[in-house]
Amino acid sequence: MWSSNFSKNALAGLTTSFALVPECIAFALVAHLNPLTGLYGAFFICTITAIFGGRPGMISGAAGSMAVVIVALVAQHGLQYFLATVVLSGLIMLLFGVLRLGKLVTMVPHPVMLGFVNGLAIVIAWSQLQHFKADGAWLQGASLVWMCGLVLLTMLIVYLLPRLTKALPPALVAIVGVGVLSATLALPVRTLGDMAHIAGGLPVFALPDVPMNLETLHIVFPYALLMAVVGLLETLLTFNLTDEITETRGLPNRECVALGAANVASGLFGGMGGCAMIGQTMINLSSGGRTRVSGAVSGIMILLFILFLSPLIERIPLAALVGVMFVVAQQTFAWSSLQVLGKVPRHDALLIVAVTAITVATDLATAVLCGIVIAALSFAWRHARDIRADVEQGAGVKTYTPHGTLFFASVAHFNELFDLQDDPQQVVLDCRYLRLVDHSAVVAVAALSERYAKAGKTLRVLHLSKRCEALLQRSGVAVTV
After folding, report:
1. Are 43 and 50 in contact (CB under 8 A)?
2. Cα separation of 161 and 359, whole Å?
3. Membrane-spanning regions, if any (predicted)?
4. pLDDT tier at 475 (50, 70, 90 boundaries)?
5. Is 300 exposed, middle or buried, given 0-12, 13-18 or 19+ CB atoms closer than 10 A?
6. How many Å apart are CA 280 and CA 165, to the nearest integer?
7. DSSP state of 333
8. Same domain for 33 and 96?
9. Cβ distance 37 to 13 under 8 Å?
10. Pairing of strands 275-276, 388-394
11. What is the reported pLDDT for 479?
12. 274, 306: one domain
């Protein structure tokens, strides 16, 4: 049983490693770096997070979302400053995990998660179109026909093979099968070797060759902070998705610490920074990868490709990898979200669409942060309108009993509940069903008391919770209680 499980996870890791190579090369080229920089980064980040991280089955590597944010840094200051940035971003990630801030991901609403998944699925599919180009021009003629044909063949194998047997990962069979077919028939198709040559030696330890002074820190810190934020966001959201798919619970803080340590190691050995990669994670999970073995095998295979297997790996047709990634995009997209758009509240439906669109148009960090802000504003608006009051009058005393939450967004509605002009001399504010949550709420109660006092009337506040009384006392608010 153990041997079978190990083999299954090892094969899943091997399959995932094939998909990691072109992505890491492409991301390195986007950042104007040597492709080996991306592959070294993939080796360190994938291996270290797999062995020491808090989410078995999740795949991390040199990610495009982090590569995009440092293009300007590399262009202006060069490789060494970039490596220093990778190390510093890793330290920030590590500190984030040590401070146990990984739980903050629980504050991301489910509609934002759906938008994140859908947006990334579209980005994954869209990014594959670059492989239909050669020297900046779209493929034509026989090259285009063979490219499209092999992509479709790969997708058919991935979809149909599980109906025949589940002994081997379908993506692995598709990649190897299409590769053998292409080599045997000498088909005119682009291969990994056309993107870059990946042969190299062992990564070498070296501190970034930059001045250790405040000027250097001033240059690299903004980029390092942005890389850390983007990396942590993508990792923790992919972490949540992996939890849902595997129906298990990981350790987010441990994952953040491992990711930080992996980025530090990558930077010290000349590699790119990275984080969790949703596409490769989906390939690993769909291939049966559930343990640390799959991630570790995937990372180690990247190093073996560099050292020994580059002649074979460079002959893999890009069409096979594109076909696999198209399937990943289709399986990643939350198609069920389309069915629920008309059933969920309108603000949630708009949130799903907005986060999806922002992810495609900009980047993940912007989309998630915008989604959280939109969700928070929507929540505040809805709860601000929920405040109401029961009113009783008798024996010269009028009693208001508000229901709801008093905070910055509901202050205006709270003030509208009171009829200052027509109220009697004695007014009671019964707070047994009212919750004061911020300073705006405290100020609102104080201001209401002052308005009644100026009108020659008395406002008594009853049944405040201990927490609310403490808020009033700390703020120095003089209210008759």
Report:
1. no
2. 33
3. 36-53, 81-99, 111-129, 141-161, 168-187, 217-237, 257-279, 291-309, 316-338, 350-379
4. low
5. middle
6. 22
7. S
8. yes
9. no
10. unpaired
11. 52
12. yes
Domain hosting 452: range is: 386-475
Q: Nearest-CA neighbor of 406 among 370, 351, 447, 451?
A: 447
Question: Judging by DSSP bridges, how do beta strands 388-394 and 397-406 pair with one another?
Answer: antiparallel
- Amino acid of residue 475: S
Is the CB of residue 357 less than 8 Å from the CB of residue 349?
no
Q: How many CA atoms lie within 13 A of 141 on its CB side?
A: 4
Spatial separation of the C-alpha atoms in residues 384 and 412, rounded to whole Å: 9
Confidence of residue 471 (pLDDT cuts 50, 70, 90): low
1 within a domain of the structure (yes/no): no
What residue type is assigned to position 260 of the chain? G
335-357 mean pLDDT: 85
Mean of the pLDDT values across residues 42-58? 96
Task: Name residue, tokens 């439906």.
Answer: 349
Tell me the mean pLDDT in the region 1-5: 61
Spatial distance between the Cα atoms of 189 and 150, rounded to a whole number of angstroms? 9
Taken in order 213, 215, 219, 222, is the CA torsion positive or negative? positive
- CB within 8 Å of 284: residues ≥ 6 apart: 12, 13, 15, 16, 57, 58, 59, 294, 295, 298
Determine the average pLDDT of the residues in 231-255. 91
Lowest mean pLDDT among 332-346, 347-361, 409-423: 332-346
DSSP H helical segments within 247-291, as ranges?
252-268, 278-286
Tokens describing residue 425: 């001399």
Length in residues, the chain: 481
Query: Above 50 in pLDDT, residue 301?
Result: yes
- Banded model confidence at residue 303, pLDDT cuts 50, 70, 90: very high
- Which of 354, 378, 402 lies at the terminal end of a domain, its last residue? 378
Does one domain contain both 299 and 337?
yes
On the question of pLDDT at 158 being above 60, the answer is yes
Going 249 to 252 to 253 to 257, the CA torsion angle's sign is: positive
Q: How many CB atoms neighbour CB 80 within 10 A?
A: 15
Residue 469, domain CATH = 3.30.750.24
Count how many domains the chain has. Answer: 2
- Sequence-distant (≥ 6) Cβ neighbours of residue 415 within 8 angstroms: 444, 448
pLDDT for the residue numbered 223: 93
pTM of the predicted model as reported, rounded to 2 decimal places: 0.82
One domain, residues 120 and 20: yes
Query: Are both 374 and 402 inside the same structural domain?
Result: no
Residue in this structure with the two tokens 């599980």, named with its chain if needed: 162
Identify whether 281 is part of a domain.
yes
Q: Which alpha helices (H) appear in 58-169, and where do they start and end?
A: 64-68, 71-77, 79-98, 110-127, 141-164
pLDDT (mean) for 411-428: 91
Pairing of strands 458-462, 426-430: parallel
Q: At which residue do the structure tokens 């995990």 appear?
A: 97
Indicate whether 312 belongs to any domain: yes
What radius of gyration, in Å, describes the C-alpha atoms of the chain?
Answer: 29
